[in-house]
Structures are given as C-alpha cells and as structure tokens.
Amino acid sequence: MLDSEAQAQGVAAALGGGSGVGGRRAPVPGPYQVPVDVGRLEVEGGVEQLFQPARNVVLPMESVGVYGFCGCKAKNKMKCDSRWEIAASETAPTSAYSSPARSLGDTGITPLSPSHIVNDTDSNVSEQQAFLVVVAIDFGTTSSGYAYSFTKEPECIHVMRRWEGGDPGVSNQKTPTTILLTPERKFHSFGYAARDFYHDLDPNEAKQWLYLEKFKMKLHTTGDLTMDTDLTAANGKKVKALEIFAYALQYFKEQALKELSDQAGSEFENSDVRWVITVPAIWKQPAKQFMRQAAYQAGLVSPENSEQLIIALEPEAASIYCRKLRLHQMIELSSKAAVNGYSGSDTVGAGFTQAKEHIRRNRQSRTFLVENVIGEIWSELEEGDKYVVVDSGGGTVDLTVHQIRLPEGHLKELYKATGGPYGSLGVDYEFEKLLYKIFGEDFIEQFKIKRPAAWVDLMIAFESRKRAAAPDRTNPLNITLPFSFIDYYKKFRGHSVEHALRKSNVDFVKWSSQGMLRMSPDAMNALFKPTIDSIIEHLRDLFQKPEVSTVKFLFLVGGFAEAPLLQQAVQAAFGDQCRIIIPQDVGLTILKGAVLFGLDPAVIKVRRSPLTYGVGVLNRYVEGKHPPEKLLVKDGTRWCTDVFDKFISADQSVALGELVKRSYTPAKPSQLVIVINIYSSEHDNVSFITDPGVKKCGTLRLDLTGTSGTAVPARREIQTLMQFGDTEIKATAIDIATSKSVKVGIDFLNY
C-alpha cells in the first residue's frame, strides 16, 4: 500500500474515464455509485492503491463502457491501468508544447470523476438579454450590407437604406466591400462612396490614399492569421487587417444605428441591439475569432458582453431563410411542371430573368415579410430528410449538409462544411490572366501600381459585363478600357493596344474602334469555366459521401448563384439526383437568414466540430505502450508526459450548448494556482500535445487562495467544463469549495 504522503501528492485514483461526448457506449444495468469511505483500486501488476473520492459520485450509465480511464481496454472503470495528472503551478507555462510536468514543477491535479455530458444547460447559460432589434451584417468579399428586424415584429425584415452610387445593370441593395483611408491612414469612406471618391482623385494624389477592396479573402488564405496580419492597399502600402475590418464594422454600426434612430424618432441605444455577423462556414477558427475581435474594436459589443454578438455561418443563415420560402419566392431549376410561371423546359437564364424582373419591380420596398409558417417546399421534408446548401459568394463556396429534425423543424449539420476559394473572384482572376496574355504581366502589374484608380475602373467595367454572361448569349460583350490604360500602355511598350491584340493570337478578343475590348460569348464563358468546374467537382466529391446520399434538395444561394452559367452547370450535373432550388432574391438570402438566426439562435441544434479539442495531461507510464522519450519519473512514480486528453473529436456531432464536464483535485493541498492548458488539432487521431498540427488555444488559470475560514475537503474538487456547439467555444473551471470560477474563450490568435 502507498503511504499517506503519496496520497497527498495527488497520486489518487480517479473514479472513471474519458468517454466525453464521443465515448458513449451501450448502457449497463443501473448507475454505479461509489461510497465516500476508502476503497481499493486494482491496477496492472497486482499493485493496490488507496483512493478517496471527494464525494459520492454517480456515474451516468452511458459513461461506463469498454474504455478505461487512460484509453486502455479495461472492461471496468475500476480496473483501469492508469491515472491522469494535469500539470499545474503558480506560474504560467513557458512553452505551449513543452511537457506540462517539466515546465511546471511537481504540483499537479488528478481527475475525481469520469467525463460526462451535461444535457441540462439551463443552469450554466445566463439568461438571454432582451434586445429590441436584431441587426445582421453580411460582410461579403465583393459586396456587403445589413438588415434588421424588431423583436416585436419578427415577421418583418428591413433591408438597409438604398445606397448612394451604383453601377449600370448591377443591383445596389448591397454596397461594394471597398474602403478608403486618407494619406494619414484615417477612415474616409466605405462602399460606393469610397470607390467614387478614389476614382475622381488626380492620379498622382491617388497614390497617397489607401484604397482596399475584396480584402475579406485574406482571412481565408492566411495560414498563420494573427492580430498583426497586414493587408496591402492598391498603392502597395501595408495596413493592419484588424484596423480595416474594425473600420468597416464601425461604419455599418453607425449607418444602422442612424437608420434605427430615424425610424424611432429618438436616439437608439447600441445596448438594445443584438448584432449578427456572417462568416463562411469553411473559415478556420482563427478567422472566425478575428471577426469577433474586429467587432470588439469597432465598438459593436464589448468582450464583457460578448453574448450581444452572434457569429453566424453563412450557409446556416441561408438554410434558416430557405425553410420559410413560399412557392412564389423561388425558382426550381429541376422542375418539370411550371413553378412560379417558369417551366423546366425553359432555359435557366430565362427563368432567372423573370425572377429578377419581379425583384426589380419590388425594389422600392425594403421590407420583406417572412411568414411565420413553414414554406411549401420545406413542408415536404420529413424527419431525417437531408438537403445541401451551396453558398456561392464572391470569395468562397461553402457546401453544408443539413438534416431536418421534427417536430420543431430544427436543423442538424450532418456533414462538416467543405468548399474552397471558388467564388466569383475566380472569374476576375481569369480575366486578369487573359490581360497578362495580351498585354504582358509586367505591364499589368505596373499599371495597377502606377494607375490604381484606372485599374479599379477597368474591373468595374468587367464586373458589369461578367453579370451579362449567359449560356445562350450570342452577341459579343464589350469592355471599355480606361483612357489612361491605352495611354500608359503606349508609353510602356512603344506601340498601341490594338497592335498588342493582333500580336497576342487571342482570336476571341478583338479591338473595337470605340476603345473597347470585344469578347465573344465563348471567351467570356471560358473565364467562368475553371471556377465552375471546381464547384461541380467539389459537389461531386460531396455527393459520394455516405452521409450525403438520398439528398432531397440542393439550395443554391449567394451572389454568384445569380450567374446563369453556374445555375446551368449545377442543374446539368445534379438535376437528376435532387431538386435544385434558387431563392428569388438570392443575393439577400444570407442577410435575411442571419436576421432570423439572431431572432432565434436555437434553431440550429447540432453542428459538426471542426477541430479536436483536449488538454495536456500525464498518464501512468506503461512499458511497451508509451514512447521511451515521454517517460518522466516523479517521487518514484513513472509517468508518460505530453498526453493529449481528448474532450471532443473533429467532425463529431455536437449539440448546441453541450457541455463536457470533468472534476479534478490539486495534487498538493498547499497549491495556490491551477493552470489547465487547452489544445486543438484538425486531426482526430491525436496522441500527444507535441504531435504535428496540435496548437495551444486556451489557458484556464484558477486562483485557489481565499479559503481562510472555509472548510476545504481533503480532496478539493475543481470542475472543468467545455461548452461546444456555438460558433464560439468556452471553457470554465470552478473551485467547488469557494465557488470561484474562471472562464476563457478558446483563442486561436494569441498563442
């Protein structure tokens, strides 16, 4: 038997092990109750050790299964061959990846109870604050906007005031995601106002101003995103990304509050607003956190009142809106019978043109009625039915599979979000490559720097023509070249633009005497092909997954979904497998859905965890099972260090608000501070915190002082909770003896 000093050092046995959220097994008869008096724990090798639980612990039936405390195959929790210790100390660790024990000294904590799920989250979730209005901001790659709804009139969604400016033939219910800073780096303007002001500047003066567009993609493409990540303005100067995103969100905040105040006839308080910001589902966790940090800096909400802001996933928002669609509010591409006056025998473009006419007629009305009913299409869905949401925007395409849960019609994410950088920007890049081929990459890159405003003009002209591309188009598309392009090219090369076109051997692009590039319809369609092919290929891969078989509907949403070429490609590839639905006002689908999500965040019930989460622990060292380099000997006990104790696995289903709860005890009664480090990985099969791809993403530091006059039990209980299911993940540690607690949001930007 071990002496009492060893017990005091925390080599105490635990009462069960890490089934966690994912470790449920077939239940066994009756709950296991362990008495408070001293018992025996058998371990491999015949050694017996005393254990003394802090209190009676009832093991939930589902947490008693084939996995023992350390992951061994013990048939009974009482026969596990190991115990865990999480290293802790009065000082924070020196390295995210060093051994917890080696960096933190001899003190530590050991578990007191098995992991289990707390389904009743009412006691852990603070009461929802009452908001007067929900304002959603759709922060897009190419265009952005906001919409709102008063909580007393949830059936009315108001889209923001009509924007000043705009382009011929382009809807301006949103504004371009463009921002302009003065030469002193102060905010000047956003959207059309920024673009038009920049365009009107003298070319030499324009070089001093900082103009940024389509900068949202930086959050998707930057692998090591931090608070100090830079963006590059059109003039080549660097500026902090966090500042730019904060400026943009601050602009929307001011616009929305001004509009609300005008409607109310008095000053509208920010504290009365619940804010919702949309982000792509395929964004990695650091990018989602970055948007929240930008919102804090913009003054939308404060970190102390973080619940006032919801980060909504774009395809989820679209899904929420689509469930309200009535027949007259959508086009069904795969329909054989007439739907909304559109027959499946018509061309895709014709059906959509008719829908756009309907929208244009109703453009003056910025209030959309959302009936408090389930739409006709949605009413056809039964328990367990699946559908795909394809959110095709400017920068990315998100593919999400949802399953319906009755009777409330709640949504369950069935397969984790996939996709990639296959948005409409891909068409712009192809146009740029075409210009490289005709005029030379060296000239185009130089022109962007020397004449940045003229380059913006050229891309605006292309955007308008890009939207006119259609499968059945026969007449050419003309793209006006700015005069400064023609003039600068002659100075740069010594010959004319027309000469360059003749020399380039690009047959399908001609020069027009009116100063325009004349593209054949086939030439324009060719610019779309690589991006659309990527989307179709990604969808084909998705439809191969077992979880995605028997999909009933495919909802095509987002700004790029307006492109008839994309509609035709999706219909041709998948029209025989499922019904393909496009909401009429497709560019505003996500915005409206985000408002509905803010009004009822609980509509999304189950998500897939994008990452594996766990903590760094020590296991009892087992010869032949654990690597020799992980051996650590303490007080005569052999430990395996750096073990990754998994809370939840990547791609695992997680209910909204679901908690994983564990109890620990300090290894030394004199310990003043406990530090628990949280780690994440994109991989499921993680064994050690030193494995490739494992990153530290949180620290719980709990002060254990202040117990004078309070009776502290011999085995002091520290409860650790991790709450999953929201777009943010929170961890909490509670000292049961003093009711002290510490909370932390999982942090991907500062470690």
From TrEMBL:
PANTHER family: ALPHA KINASE/ELONGATION FACTOR 2 KINASE, HEAT SHOCK 70 KDA PROTEIN 12A. This is Heat shock 70 kDa protein 12A. Interacts with SORL1 (via cytosolic C-terminus); this interaction affects SORL1 internalization and subcellular localization. Adapter protein for SORL1, but not SORT1. Delays SORL1 internalization and affects SORL1 subcellular localization. Coiled coil: none annotated. The keyword Ribosomal protein does not apply. The lineage of its organism: Eukaryota, Metazoa, Chordata, Craniata, Vertebrata. Keywords: Acetylation, ATP-binding, Cytoplasm, Nucleotide-binding, Nucleus. InterPro entries: ATPase_NBD (IPR043129), HSPA12A_NBD (IPR026685). It is found in: Cytoplasm; Nucleus. One of its GO terms (molecular function) is ATP binding. GO terms for biological process: import into nucleus; inflammatory response; liver development; macrophage activation. Belongs to the heat shock protein 70 family. Its main location: cytoplasm. GO terms for cellular component: cytoplasm; nucleus.
